[in-house]
Amino acid sequence: MNLIELGQLTEEETRNYLETIIWPNGPVCP
């Protein structure tokens, strides 16, 4: 995904995208 595509996402889509990058297996408690 490039910067232009990121700019077209809604807030919820952006949050979901970032969560998949940070937590590939879903958010978990340590």
Largest sheet: none
Computed over alpha carbons, the radius of gyration is 11 Å
Q: How would you spell out the order of helices and strands?
A: HH
Strand proportion: under 5%
Shape: elongated
Number of helices: 2
**Helix vs. strand class:** mainly alpha
From the N-terminal CA to the C-terminal CA, the straight-line distance is 29 Å
Segments where pLDDT lies below 50 for 5+ residues?
Answer: none
Q: Number of DSSP strands?
A: 0
Q: Name the average pLDDT.
A: 89
Helical fraction equals 55-70%
Concise overview:
With 30 residues, the protein is an all-alpha fold.
Notes on the structure:
This protein is mainly α. The model has no long low-confidence stretch (mean pLDDT 89). The radius of gyration is 11 Å and the shape is elongated. It has helices at 3-7, 11-22.
Summarize the helices and strands and which ones pair or pack.
Elements lengths: L2 H5 L3 H12 L8
Any key phrases for this structure?
mainly alpha
